[in-house]
Amino acid sequence: MKLSFFIFLLVFSVQCQAQEFFGTLEKNIAQYYHKNDSGYNSLDSIINNLHQDPDAVDMVTKEVYEKKTPVDSEVKKILSGFDLTTGKWDDINYNDKRESGWDPKIHAERILLLTTLYTNPQSKYYLKAEIKPVLHQALKFWFDANLICKNWWYNEIGIPKTLGPVFIMLRNELSADEVNKAVIVLNHSKIKMTGQNKVWLAGNVLFKAILIKDEALAKTARDTIFSELRISGNEGIQQDFSFHQHGPQQQFGNYGLSFVNTLSFWSRVFSGTSLKADKEHLAILKDLMLNGYSWITWKGYLDINSFGRQFFKGVDRSKALAIAYSMLDMTFVDPENANQYMEFISRNYSPKYLPQLNGTKHFWTSDMTVHRSPNWFATLKMSSNRVQATEALNRENLKGYFLGDGNYFVTVDGDEYEGIFPYLNWKKLPGVTNFQTSAPLKVLGFSGYRNKGDFTGGVVSGKNGISAFSLNRDSLSGNKATFWLNDKMVCLGSNIHSDIQKPVFTTINQTKLKGPVYFYDNKTRELKDTVYSSKSIKWVYHNKIGYYNLQPANISISAKNQTGSWGDIAFVYDKEKPITKPVFTLDIYHDFLAQTGSYAYELVPGEDFEKFKTFSPDFEIIQNNKKAQVIATRNGSTLMLAIYEPTSIKAKSFPVLKFMTCGLYILEKSKAGWLVSISDPTQKLENANWQIGGKSESTPLPQNLNKGKTIQINIPFN
């Protein structure tokens, strides 16, 4: 009798624990979708004023839209457009054959929206009788129709991910038959693949585990999700806290952002249960957020070089918001560091954009540099035989042929490039040196392209840094270096040459035209014509950015209308009409016959026009040729060097330097000697072999996953 009673108590205890376990998971999921926590208030005004793209296909963007509280008129429109007899909405093309922007997914998204309203006690639609039959009939149609998209992603990831939380929040209202059919939908997801795809699939399996209350399956799915929360040399989180997917390709704003959103979501769901993130996994997620994603937004806009292939409407703002919501999730998951996550939100969405995050950061596994100053922001993207520049897939990124060719985007206010992509001249991306012909741009494929060479990298020291690479593409080659010095941007190009007789240009910038354009050509002038070209232009100023020419060059200034369509860059917009808008373009023509295959100019962002008129560089160019690109500050404090071949460098106020191996170097004078920052852009060397003041140095370089990372040493004065 006593044994039977003990067994009864044990079984009862286990059942209670399981009930509490799944009850907490269900509660956390509902709280996430109901957004009743006060932390969301800081973003409500931003999300409610965000323009929604009705053709959005990006999962991250659509999930941001879902956080917007719908107004009554929107809810009434959704309800009035639904046919209770057929279980369908009248404005959805259920026969859609597209692989991107698949229309039937809207059906699932509306079910999720109505479920969120219906199950939220703080909603005016809570348990409303008019919504209940719509939900059940809409689910019945989906269960019976068994719609299949040509793109596997919708079937195995997109639809189960959207309906999974629906099944959880409606669990107590679903019949046994509906639960069984819900399981069939979720069974489309199996644990497999790599990176973010693996995480998505495991998350959908977890929805199933919670629905059927399978604790063992929940733990397996949880372990699979966290198995990708690791640093590796393969796809996923990288050693420098960038993110790769589809091979060695930077995917901050696409798969990486989905990864961050998914991991922060599930980590929040797991809070208060035995599945919660352990210290090791939490530390990696924290570093990915704060040392990776914190760097790539500016004033509520996501960096363009982080888009991946997703050049869609409004993604610069919607994806920045997605990061902000993940930061909010992290305040629940990692309360000890809540202030740092909230600083991201304040820095991007408070009136003064404070507190600042300043400095230069190079992601050595992704060939990308970020510079943040108090007044401006820029990123520069390169590629190499190690790193793929970009990709074109699902008929997206149809004009991104030159992305990763050393292109940069510089912004002061954040909106300089907002909405420009349809009418942008994609042959003239800022920072790119390339042929300019009338031939249409080639469309890349899944494998994109890689620059033919291994000299691509960056070296950093606080706010200063160098980004450099040897361009070798389409029969055009040359050395290109950008020096981030004293919150300015110095760009040098050398040894630019080709055997092909086609016009070659270097684009200094191309942005939306905003306000007047001024320039100095023997005197200060305002651009009145649409185009002005000259070999004696000293400087140009437009929209808070000054451009200072450092050597004779054939410079062209353009301020004229350009026309293009969203459908030209992403097929989902194939029915869009052309757009015509004014654009500012500044570029340099390289006349190889005159042997001018080089350039030297400086960008001075965030500068007042009156101050810029008297601007003078605080450095000099020591060398800009095939072997090296070198600049030195006039006060003798800093020497910056991109060394492509063995050479010797002499500069006033600095010791004589000799280099036996290539590399990137920054010498900064300190009280006791020289602080030397070094990196190996080839990621092949074990030691940097060089001499300073006649003394030989063999500096050990980072290896394994840290190849290409900056190392710093101190050299005492002789």
Give an overview of the whole structure:
The chain is an alpha+beta fold and 718 residues long. The chain has 15 helices and 34 strands. Helix 7 (152-169) packs parallel to helix 9 and helix 8 packs antiparallel against helix 9 (195-212).
Share of helical residues: 25-40%
Q: How many DSSP helices?
A: 15
Rg, Å, rounded: 28 Å
User: What is the spatial order of strands in the main beta sheet?
Assistant: 12-13-14-15-24-21-20-17-18
State the distance separating the first and last CA atoms: 90 Å
Quick one: how many beta strands? 34
Shape: globular
Unreliable stretches (pLDDT < 50, length at least 5) are 8-14
Mean pLDDT over the full residue set: 94
Q: Beta-sheet strand percentage? A: 25-35%
Oligomeric state of the chains in view: single chain
Indicate the structural class: alpha+beta
Keywords: Calcium, Lyase, Signal
Domain Polysaccharide lyase 8 N-terminal alpha-helical: 71-345
Organism: Pedobacter segetis
Domain Polysaccharide lyase family 8 C-terminal: 620-687
Descriptive tags:
718 residues; alpha+beta; six-stranded antiparallel β-sheet; 30% helix
